[in-house]
Specification:
Elements lengths: L8 H26 L10 E5 L3 E7 L8 E6 L2 E8 L18 E8 L10 E5 L2 E7 L17
Length: 150
Amino acid sequence: MASLVRWEPMDDLLGLRDAMERLFQQSFARARSSLSIPFEAGPALDIYETSDAAIVEAALPGVQADDIEVTMTGDVLTIKGQTQEDITVERENYIRRERRYGSFSRSVRLPGELDAGEATAEFRDGVLKLTVPKREEAKVKVIEVRATTV
């Protein structure tokens, strides 16, 4: 004899919801991994400020110092460069290829009033470090407060 089971529509709905969540999680995980390709939007930058200067560090692996051009117009810093491919390998033998070759450019607006004429650049171990000093009028000044008695 067959037994009757009461149908619960919410059980089916929750199963569909779980399947949709898994689908979205898988598709976003794949999309996120493809966003990590270097030089897609230019080199990765760290920008921070000290009391005397703005410091910019750019990751430029595989780039030679002679292939880097740094310019500053107003408060906009531009880093341009080019990477060369050394090894020629048949394309059909690649399993995955994420390193990019060719030219790149990245422009960012720097904070504060900076003195581009006094900027220095150092390139070591694939990291470009730019130090752009602040103008004297933009530096923080401490004003002493004196108490007066009436």
